[in-house]
């Protein structure tokens, strides 16, 4: 990655995860990474000597070629930087490209979504770019997000809101489903510790298989249904109960919240 990169909010859950993920992957040298945090310290990065930590957002923006914004959306109006000649990457939910331009004075802006799984190199980070973002800027963005997982450029901001709902919360909805299965098991007399152990292993194995197999999730479901065994009976019953509709309604509610959470005065 060329030049210096700074993360405003780099001591927070998401900003810190991105910082640790990049450092672990070797995508940025510690001496080329700046962190801005209100406390002025970043203890989670203590293992990497050379990282610059400041409490001054303006100092970070002046020193860095790329500025990542990772503060809570409600605090977006307090960022207080001028970044007219910088590449600005925001991972703040719901803060639009238009508002980011007003907040920072930048023209080269990328709006993205990631997740704390970035610390483990497991995030999915889709992003959308303003018209002024150059091919070189795009290479920088890909370097950041490929260091912490998988990434795609998407064509519109509304898709970022959808992905904020779907892939931002980790484990989020997956944990909800696992908890429902654990509750089902314990209601039928299985010990809590055993049920949790079983479901953690199930979801670990399922995630690995889904990520590595060439068959799509839909194809894998259909293969189970075609086999007509115990899982097929469960899938059919869940479908008949309207599980897909319930999931869609939940994701729509989350996406609507994502679209509104970043609203505020520039």
UniProtKB/TrEMBL annotation:
<dbReference type="InterPro" id="IPR000304">
    <property type="entry name" value="Pyrroline-COOH_reductase"/>
</dbReference>
<comment type="pathway">
    <text>Amino-acid biosynthesis; L-proline biosynthesis; L-proline from L-glutamate 5-semialdehyde: step 1/1.</text>
</comment>
<keyword id="KW-0560">Oxidoreductase</keyword>
<keyword id="KW-0963">Cytoplasm</keyword>
<dbReference type="InterPro" id="IPR036291">
    <property type="entry name" value="NAD(P)-bd_dom_sf"/>
</dbReference>
<comment type="function">
    <text>Catalyzes the reduction of 1-pyrroline-5-carboxylate (PCA) to L-proline.</text>
</comment>
<protein>
    <recommendedName>
        <fullName>Pyrroline-5-carboxylate reductase</fullName>
        <ecNumber>1.5.1.2</ecNumber>
    </recommendedName>
</protein>
<keyword id="KW-0521">NADP</keyword>
<dbReference type="InterPro" id="IPR029036">
    <property type="entry name" value="P5CR_dimer"/>
</dbReference>
<dbReference type="InterPro" id="IPR008927">
    <property type="entry name" value="6-PGluconate_DH-like_C_sf"/>
</dbReference>
<feature type="domain" description="Pyrroline-5-carboxylate reductase catalytic N-terminal">
    <location>
        <begin position="4"/>
        <end position="94"/>
    </location>
</feature>
<comment type="similarity">
    <text>Belongs to the pyrroline-5-carboxylate reductase family.</text>
</comment>
<keyword id="KW-0641">Proline biosynthesis</keyword>
<dbReference type="Pfam" id="PF14748">
    <property type="entry name" value="P5CR_dimer"/>
</dbReference>
<feature type="domain" description="Pyrroline-5-carboxylate reductase dimerisation">
    <location>
        <begin position="157"/>
        <end position="259"/>
    </location>
</feature>
<keyword id="KW-0028">Amino-acid biosynthesis</keyword>
<dbReference type="InterPro" id="IPR028939">
    <property type="entry name" value="P5C_Rdtase_cat_N"/>
</dbReference>
<dbReference type="Pfam" id="PF03807">
    <property type="entry name" value="F420_oxidored"/>
</dbReference>
């Amino acid at each position: 990655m060329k030049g210096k990169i700074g993360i405003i909010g780099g001591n927070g859950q998401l900003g810190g995860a991105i910082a640790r993920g990049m450092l672990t992957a070797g995508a940025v040298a510690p001496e080329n990474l700046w962190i801005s945090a209100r406390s002025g310290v970043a203890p989670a990065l203590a293992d990497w000597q050379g990282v610059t930590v400041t409490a001054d957002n303006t100092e970070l923006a002046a020193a860095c070629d790329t500025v990542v914004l990772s503060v809570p959306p409600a605090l977006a109006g307090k960022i207080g930087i001028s970044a007219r000649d910088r590449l600005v990457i925001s991972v703040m939910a719901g803060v639009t490209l238009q508002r980011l331009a007003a907040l920072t004075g930048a023209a080269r802006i990328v709006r993205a979504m990631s997740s704390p799984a970035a610390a483990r190199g497991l995030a999915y980070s889709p992003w959308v770019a303003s018209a002024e973002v150059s091919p070189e800027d795009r290479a920088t963005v890909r370097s950041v997000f490929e260091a912490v997982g998988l990434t795609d450029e998407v064509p519109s901001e509304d898709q970022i809101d959808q992905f904020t709902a779907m892939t931002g919360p980790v484990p989020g909805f997956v944990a909800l489903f696992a908890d429902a299965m654990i509750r089902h098991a314990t209601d039928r007399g299985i010990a809590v510790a055993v049920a949790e152990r079983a479901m953690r292993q199930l979801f670990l194995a399922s995630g690995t298989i889904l990520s590595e197999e060439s068959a799509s999730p839909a194809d894998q479901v259909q293969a189970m249904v075609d086999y007509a065994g115990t899982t097929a009976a469960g899938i059919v019953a869940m479908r008949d109960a309207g599980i897909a509709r319930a999931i869609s309604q939940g994701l729509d509610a989350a996406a609507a919240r994502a679209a509104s959470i970043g609203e505020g005065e520039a």
